[in-house]
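Homework help thread (please don't just give me the answer)

Our assignment gives two proteins as sequence + C-alpha cell strings and asks us to describe the second one. The first is just a warm-up. Here they are:
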Amino acid sequence: MIRTIAIDDEPLALQLVSGYVRKTPFLELVESFDNPISAMEYLENNSVELIFLDIQMPDLTGIEFARVVHTGAKIIFTTAYEKYALEGFKLDAVDYLLKPFGYEEFLVAAQKARKLLELEQKASSSIETNNEFLFLKSDYKIRRINFSEIQYIEGLKDYVKVFLKNDPKPILSLNSLKTLEIKLPSAKFMRVHRSFIVNLDCINTVERFRIVFGNVYIPVSDQYKEKFQEYLDQNFL
C-alpha cells in the first residue's frame, strides 16, 4: 500500500481525488487537506510516499509547495491550468492531471508512481544497510558523518544543522529532519521535538524533560514525551 495524501482547496475536487485514492487497491489515503499549510505541518512528523497536489491555491501554490517541502514523496499535480505543466515536470513530478479528469487518467498516473516507487525500493534493497555513517552535502562538498560523532540535529525549515561532539561549528545541509530521521538508526537516535533529533548515547543530563548538552537545552515536546520516558525507564536504576 502506498501512503498517500491529497491537497486541494476546492472541496469538490478534493472529494473526487480522495474518492479515487480510496477505490484504488494499492493506495492508502492517510489524510486530505484543503490548504497546503496544514499539509506542511502534517509532513513535519509523518511520512507519505505519494502526494496528489493542486497548483492554484491561496497562500502557497502547489509549485511553491513542491519546491519548499522535501519529503522524498512522489508528486502528481492536479490542476485546471495547462500552462503549469512544464514547470511541474521540472520539479520531477510523476504526472500532471488536467481537470476535469476521470478515474482512468487518475489510475494511469497512480500506476506510474507505483512503478517508480517499486524501482527505487528494489534499488535500495540491493544496497546493504549502513549503520555506521552517512554522506551529507554541505557547502558544495559531500562529507562523511559518522553516527558516533553526532550529538544532536536541529531542523530549520528546509535545512538541518548537525552538531558534532568535537566540532563547535555545526554542519548545515539542505535536507529535512524527516529524511534524516529515516536514515539514522532508531536504536541510537530519537526524535524528541519537531525540530530536534538526539543521539541517545550522548545524553548525560535530563532536567525537567529538557536534554542538556553543555549550555544547550533541548526540549522534549508532548508528542514525544511518552516514547522518551519509556527509554529513560528502560535504563533507570
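The one we have to describe:
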Amino acid sequence: MAIAEQPAAGRVARPRFSAGGVFRTVRHYGIIPGIPLFVLVTLIFVGAFAPLISPHEPNKQSLLDSNVAPAWTAEGTSNNLLGTDRFGRDQLTRIFYGARISLIVSFVTIAIGGAIGTLVGLTAGYFGGWLDSLLMRIVDVFLAFPGLLLAIVLATVFEPSFTIVILVASLLIWPRFARLVRGDTLGIKPNDFVTYARITGTPTPRILMKHIFPNVIPTLLVLCTWEVGAIILLESSLSFLGAGIPPPNPSWGTMVLDGRGQLEEGWWISLFPGLAIMTTVLSLNLLGDWMRDYLDPKLRHA
C-alpha cells in the first residue's frame, strides 16, 4: 500500500504549483487569471520601459497642440493617439509615465510597510501575552485613523512629494500586514516542528525566519497583490486632492484632476487615466482573489 507523502519538517503543507494544478483550479472556479495577469505584466513593462516606448516627452508643452482629440476622432491626429491636455502634453506618454510612478510608489511602500507589518505580526503571534496585546492595540489605533486626513495634514505641514505619499501609504498598510501575519503565526506556532525547534534551543530569530516566515509567504503574496491596487488608488486619490505627487509629474490622479473642468470639450483628458486606474486596480483585485483561492487548501478543495 502506498504511503501518502508527508510535508517536509518545518513546513506546513501547501499546494504545489504545477501547470495541471493551475488548469484544474481555473476550470473549477471559472476564473481566468490570464486577463488580470496580462494587465499586470503590461503595467510593469510600460512602467519599466516608459522612456523607451513613449512617443513624446511627458512634460513637453505645446500650446498650439492643446486639447487635441484622440486619433480616431475627426479632430484627432496620428501624432497623439490619446489626444493632448490643455498644455499640449501627450496623454499616452503621460499615462505610461504615470504607470511608472504608480509602480515606484507601490513597490517602495510594500517594501517598507510590508516589512514592518510582517515583523510586528511575527513578533506578536509568536511571543503572545502582554506584548501581543500591546502591539495589537497599536495596530487598532492605526487601522482606525483616517488615511486621507493624515495625508492632508502632512501635505499642509510639508510640501506634497513622493516621500509624503510613501509615508502615508506605509502607515496605512503595515497594520493590515501585521494583523494577517499574526493570525497565520498563531496557527503555525503550535505545530510540532516549532515546538521541537524551541526544545532543542534554536534561537528565536532563526525559528521565526526559518520555520514560521516561509509558511506565511502565501498569505503575503495575496496581500501584496491586493495592497498594490489599494496603494495605486490611494496615490491617485491623494494626487487628485493636491496632497500627493506634485505637478508636473504625470500621476494618474493629477491627470484626472487636470481634465475635471474640461469634460465637455476635452473628455479624454480625464477618461483615459481614469480607465487606467480602474483597469489596474480591478485586475489586481481579481488576481489577488484567484491567488487566495489557489493558495488556500481549504478553498481550493471546497
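TA reply:
I won't write it for you, but here's a hint about the kind of observation we're looking for: The chain has one domain: 40-50+88-300.
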